[in-house]
Input
Amino acid sequence: MKQETLERIRRFTTDRDWDQFHSPENLAKSIVIEAAELLECFQWSGSEFDLQHVKEEIADVIVYTQDLLDKLGLDADEIVNMKMEKNEEKYPVEKAKGSAAKYDQL
Amino acid sequence: MKQETLERIRRFTTDRDWDQFHSPENLAKSIVIEAAELLECFQWSGSEFDLQHVKEEIADVIVYTQDLLDKLGLDADEIVNMKMEKNEEKYPVEKAKGSAAKYDQL
Amino acid sequence: MKQETLERIRRFTTDRDWDQFHSPENLAKSIVIEAAELLECFQWSGSEFDLQHVKEEIADVIVYTQDLLDKLGLDADEIVNMKMEKNEEKYPVEKAKGSAAKYDQL
Amino acid sequence: MKQETLERIRRFTTDRDWDQFHSPENLAKSIVIEAAELLECFQWSGSEFDLQHVKEEIADVIVYTQDLLDKLGLDADEIVNMKMEKNEEKYPVEKAKGSAAKYDQL
Output
């Protein structure tokens, strides 16, 4: 995200003095709560969904995820690259291509 | 995230021919599954947690969220700013400051 | 469930001195964690799933739900009947029949 | 649960012709969605929660879990006992007593 979007997310919390509620645990709960609201957009159908609602719920997931990164002093690029390294090893192209199987079933 | 991190996430999917599994619905399920794995790091304690494990689970949430943005052709900055606009209205500073109450309880 | 199954669930916790970890909050986290593991059985397909795995994950959801009922001194029949009363009013047969719409969209 | 409560849950679905929406996958999504709503009661605090709200969300989890059992023709006692057998082996009393560690960390 752009620096100004990040700043907007951070200012939202600071302005409301909400940092006190943002323990890593509470933010992890919040991410799963918002992710489930996103899933609710697809509860009874995978093909008919309200795109505007989907956008809002994805945004909520992103905001709480950023809050957690900030709380723990983490950098998105760093942890994603670290994890992608692992994923690339766990799912070698030649084995995983076209398969939805879990790595321990490949 | 940096462009090269985004590209790495996208290449991971393309190389494995996994786009076929990445329906919006399946990605929404995946986000909630990873978010719950993140929560599991805090299942029995909010204060003692394995930071390395937390990093990996946050990364998984970020990756699937990016996959969903890509699938739907959405831009993170755009939807987050759209949602922050709503949040700022729903939680006016003067009312929400220091309170964890939901907007309809303020 | 049968009384002896309920007793087995309770004895499992007592024998291990785990009641100390069973705060309502921790049990709520546990239910969502297990529910997401159940969902993982259907992550990439709704039609091909491992029934044995599904059974185990449903059982985990039931066990933690019972733990929470016990912790709060609640009776399953009582709260389910109380909620069904509400559901029956929110979704009148004539309006809801054959529709997957939420009550506020009926 | 009592037979009449089970029948009420089943009649609710049949009367509304909702069985068509109750694929195992959709019910698994529904359970996680309701479990996350239950977790929301504890989002910012583990000690201050609205018991009435908690009861309703637990009831929703129970109802969708029962719907899934019915859909798959499963018996709660049977699968819970099967899983408790496994749990008792994975967490031997002498090792697990008083510890919140996962079985592979004991």
Q: What stands out?
A: Chain D touches chain B at residues 29, 32, 36, 43-45, 100 (CB under 8 Å). Residues 4 and 10 of chain D are 10 Å apart (CA to CA). Chain D has a mean pLDDT of 97. The first helix of chain D runs from residue 3 to 16.
